[in-house]
Design goal:
single chain; 202 residues; alpha+beta; Arc Repressor Mutant, subunit A; Umud Fragment, subunit A; 2 domains; 9-stranded mixed β-sheet
């Protein structure tokens, strides 16, 4: 790895810790909070320096569009890529396996059971784009704010999930999209898994 300044190393470690803990890179604001920077511009400056040194890549227009490049891989298993999940509106995901890919388990915060290919634009403000592969850990358990795969009747969607009493809120990461409100007294909904990481499209 190319020589890094002390601050650049701290920023890189912050990115790695966020990915390992949550499955996703931090925002500039989160980097500032973690490292005590006074301005997001300071975080941006260090990120651009890391990008110039070919350590990370940065996707424009996204608060979480940061990925670490050329990370050494440990032995991992083959994980299926399933269907298309609608990140724009809740439409049925095809459950046919498109292919399988080999993954390094250390890249993700929890065990990866499958990948879902994203369709739509409703998550782009958090760096989740159409054709990206979201790593899914199969579980019915979640905490408020998790990125979840939710099936409502015959529909499937990928959103941030919040629950209060009998009400579910499925929240997009795009101001042009409305959240989905579900009253569990009248509608059925089931969490099929939570997002634990992301592989960006080429």
């Amino acid at each position: 790895m190319k020589d890094l300044t002390a601050q650049q190393s701290k920023v890189l470690n912050c990115i790695e810790e966020s990915i390992n803990k949550t499955g996703f890179p931090p925002t500039r604001a989160e980097i500032c909070q973690k490292l005590g920077f006074k301005s997001p511009n300071a975080a941006e400056s260090h990120l651009r320096a890391l990008e110039k040194k070919d350590i990370i890549s940065i996707a424009g227009g996204s608060s979480r569009g940061i990925s670490i490049k050329n990370k050494k891989s440990s032995s991992g298993g083959s994980v299926p890529v399933i269907g298309l999940v609608a990140a724009g509106s809740a439409t049925l995901a095809s459950e046919n396996i498109e292919r399988e890919i080999n993954v390094d388990p250390s890249l993700f915060s929890r065990n990866v059971d499958y990948f879902l290919k994203v369709k739509g634009l409703s998550m782009i403000e958090d760096g989740i784009y159409e054709d990206d592969l979201v790593a899914i850990h199969k579980t019915n358990d979640f905490k408020n704010g998790d990125l979840a795969v939710v099936r409502t009747e015959d529909d499937v969607t990928l959103k941030y999930i919040f629950k209060e009493n009998h009400k579910l809120l499925l929240k997009p990461a795009n101001k042009d999209f409305d959240p989905i409100h579900i009253d569990l007294r009248n509608e059925s909904a089931e969490v099929e898994g939570i997002g634990v990481g992301l592989i960006r499209k080429n």
